[in-house]
Amino acid sequence: MNDKDILKAASSHKRYEIWDDQVEGLFLQITTKGDKVFHLRYKIGARYRKGKIGTYRAAKAITT
Fold first, then answer.
1. What is d(CA 61, CA 38) in angstroms, rounded to the nearest whole number?
2. How far apart are CA 33 and CA 49, in angstroms?
3. For 25, which DSSP code?
4. Which of 7, 14, 15, 25 could form a disulfide with 41 if both were Cys (CB 3.0 to 4.6 A apart)?
5. Predicted TM-score (pTM) of this structure
């Protein structure tokens, strides 16, 4: 998952996820509103859990 992949991800009629291929358990969730939120899925004992890391905000170009 890189910046281009994230920027191309568009909202849909239902929520979906893009999983990272280098970091196990890391994924980006795209909501129906188009919000992009990073999560980490991890396991404690026999149960899987999910924790929110933060919201993706694209860097704005600096004009001088």
1. 22
2. 24
3. T
4. 25
5. 0.78
